[in-house]
Amino acid sequence: QVQLVESGGGLVQGGGSLRLSCAASGSIFSINAMSWYRQAPGKQRELVATITEGGSTNYADSVKGRFTISRDYAKNMMYLQMTALKPEDTAVYYCYAVAGLGSKYDFWGQGTQVTVSS
User: pLDDT tens digit string along 29-49?
Assistant: First the structure.
């Protein structure tokens, strides 16, 4: 089992920055890749960014150049640095991890609200 806890959400003005954190605990040795997802009201949950165990990263087109995903393996943390925030970035942001052989297990955090005012 892997437990994920997000923090760092809040209210920010458009153009501002925010850093989200995800603390992982439990069977962290089994984690392969980690991601950030988000879900805006009335919309489907969407993938924002992924970082693999080897450190490779991928981003949704809508956040490329503005968001940066990173991991601190020593602290069992994952981060999402968000800059140049837009009102359309408003959503609940979720931490996600896949673990185990063949990434057969997946885990979600409880989410943290990010609200960007215009």
Answer: 888 999 999 999 999 999 999
